[in-house]
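Q: Sequence in, structure out?
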Amino acid sequence: MKRLILSAIFAFSAFGYSANAQKKAATQEVKVTIDLNHVQNDKVMVTVIPPAFSGNNIVYHFPKTVPGTYSADNYGKLVENLKAYDKSGKELVTSKTDDNSWSLPNAKSVAKITYWINDTYDSEKGRGFGKDDIFSPAGVNILEAKSFMVNNHAFVGFFEDKIALTEIPYNLTILHPAGLFGATSLIDTDKSDTVDNFKTNRYFGLTDNPIMYAKPDYETFMVDGMEILFSVYSPNGIHTAKSLLPDLEKTMRAQKAFMGSINANKRYTVLLYLSDVKKNDAQGFGALEHHTSTTVVFPEAMPTEALGEQIKDVVSHEFFHTVTPLSIHSKEIQYFDYSNPKMSEHLWMYEGVTEYFANLFQVNQGLIDADEFYERMSGKITNSANLNDTMPFTEMSKNVLNPPYKEQYLNVYEKGALIGMCIDIIIREKSNGERGILDLMKKLSQEYGMEKPFDDSELFAKVTELTYPEVGEFLNTYVAGKTPIPYDVYFAKVGVTKGKIQVPGNPFLKDMTTPFVTINPKTKEILIIPNLELNDFMKTLGLKGGDTILAVNDKAYNLDNIYDLIMESQNWKADDAISVKIKRDDKEQTVKGKVKLSFNEIEGYQLTDTSKEKLNNAWLKG
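A: Exactly. Output:
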């Protein structure tokens, strides 16, 4: 996600038993029915038909955490009134042993288990990031007859008989209103309008495939042999899949062109849930990656253009996860322990390289220019400096669920991306521009792949073997070690140095933080603050302090949507035509002209050493 959780290895002594137990159960399956037709107090019923057990004392578990998240969410807390029955319908004894586990002491007699699953979207207290909140893209929405976000890990558990029986096939049936469409990368084997049936060969296949039910609003397109399904839920109809499709399609075509043959998915689904923040709705904005899909949650109130930019950045990050960790990962991920997760050391690669790719591909494919790319990397340097820059990244990664390491988690998107950048530059320099970190990831994908995990301790040596000794030295010094990275040294290798640069300011902000406008508390109208020295944008249009801004380009604005105005103005270009409807001295008038931007001087990076221009071009465009 644009947060990831990695998991636990089975102890070596358990492998023999595990293989035999899973093989014995291979001809069985767990049958699950989720009934979305009958909603009670934002809860739906789940019925589980277990496989036949040879003994009693079986435990039914829900995940403590799931791949792609970095928090102990305890999905069992969503379960209410779990009951077990025998073939005659007699209720059997069950015992809840912890937040996520129910003991079945008469397991051989259990014919079915039923329970209710609760909503999470309508009860997020900490804007989706509170101590007890489940990150919205990993959560549950139950809105009767309108929308259901079915993250299967929150609805369906797994059985434990000495070891977790997660390799048993699952057969999932979902009963739903006829007017709702279930968007997912799973294949529906039931063609009726009210019943969907999905089969997976193990528990991970179920939890790795979210399903979003809503009134049909989706688009499909093909990219280099891959079918993309884009499904949107916009509760007030503000956005549609069709209106947002151009940004997504442009982004994913550019990504496939950048990645080449490293990604062989034939089907990929993007689920976009737009939250009505004025109601009890999702507040944890961001995305969660899966092998063949991404779940995205954003506020519905975002302007279309700003939402398109967010889709470009966030979905591209999640899509690059199809490279790592989904295709290149350690045993902690391959043998995920949903109940007692243990972390891998290599978040620098899983999240950091992924975030780096999400920025690099944009300059590589012409979606942004080099200066914007440098600005983004400069921002990450600034952000990482506000975190613990001497904490070994491998140590933080291994312990990321626990303090003080979890407080440093956000550094995976800052320093983690910069680690990827520096490795890329080293490889480019040593290969005279012929290869970069994408080449490394392709080789690692060929070496390992989706079903062959590596040992955490072997990765640095393998990376060094596939690249150069200098890469190994970098990893041991700056990733496993405590030494802060001297970024200027690596930028200089590609001709980039630090200096003063000019960046366009926001038309409504004086110095990137101080506004030129305020709100009239009595009328909710937007007012230009009196007695301020206005910027070139306002002076050129003849705007004055005390003017009330009623509309811009024929769109009305006030307190309720001033955020939209600020965000949309970020995308204005110099000399764009503009009209501003104002009220001055109680008289309304419209002024027209062209956008004139002011510039702020900041410290940043730019190409200054032209002798390195060829290597710089290979780095950004190769």
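The first strand starts at residue 30 and ends at 40.
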